[in-house]
Design goal:
There is one protein chain. This protein is an alpha/beta fold. It has three domains: 10-138, Rossmann fold (3-Layer(aba) Sandwich); 143-222, Beta-Lactamase (2-Layer Sandwich), CATH 3.30.450; 224-298, Arc Repressor Mutant, subunit A (Orthogonal Bundle). The protein has helices at residues 18-30, 41-48, 67-75, 94-102, 115-141, 160-165, 174-186, 224-238, 242-252, 257-264, 268-282, 287-298; strands spanning 10-14, 34-38, 55-59, 85-89, 107-110, 146-149, 155-158, 194-197, 204-212, 216-222. It has a five-stranded parallel sheet, with helices on both faces. The longest helix has 27 residues, at 115-141. The protein is elongated, with a radius of gyration of 24 Å. The relative contact order is 0.07. One of its GO terms (cellular component) is cytosol.
Length: 301
Amino acid sequence: MKFPDDRKTVVMVVDDDIDSIRMINDALEEAGMTVLVALEGNQALTISQNITPDVVLMDAMMPNMDGFETCRRLKENPAFADIPIIFMTGLSDTEHVVMGLNAGGVDYVTKPINTTELLARMDVHLANARMTRSARCALDTAGQNLFAVDRDGNLLWGTPQVSRCLPENHHPEYPDFRVQLEEWLSHQPEPGHSLPLRVLEAPRSVEFLALVDNREYLLRLKTPQNQNSAAAALRERFELTLRESDVLLWIANGKTNREIGQILDMSPRTVNKHLEQVFRKLGVENRTAAAASAIRLLATM
């Protein structure tokens, strides 16, 4: 069974049983794959710092660090977000199957391993993982730097560009980043509202897009370049001045006059004067209608 890729599929096998490793290694190499071997969890974590395999075969029961903990630790690395981890275990009872899935695994096979079944399962999960990565890379290419978090601010997934920008789970700044998101989301922001981030090296903001399945907050990472382009688009479409377009942009982001004044270094009264001109040029009567017009335009960018 050959995998139809120009580049060889890289498989990391994590198992402390030498005989099992030999048998799996022979089957994978015969299928045209490259095999990396880790005899215990810490070795797998060390390998993962330098190499990202296409799929991981994980023994559930190992000394020192079992497969469940190793899986959780691997999944803390954003590079492993889409990497399928398949558990290999002699334990087929429900409790251990659930433990493997909760740790981040996608499937399990029971020992002794049926290599034909194993390769078939790998084929399915590799195809799904590649489709997911392709979709996220396409979003990046289109400038849609998207990611999702849970209600506690924990990162669930992100496009490749976002994963490179955001602090990783073990990064010293990650707790502050998570707390910022958790606090902001607790106020139930409306779609289009943004949060300036204070923990990243470059100034950025996060835009709330939607709540998916009542558990996954879909967000967009925005850079000053995004904001400058957005202001320019508003200025051109509605024939606004530079300051008017800046004010309208921040209105669309859900900011109050006081907050806009602080951001743009002007008084709330001056903000209000600009808003009067914005309303006139957009042909609307209030800030809600102005924000809606701006959001509709920016959604097409």
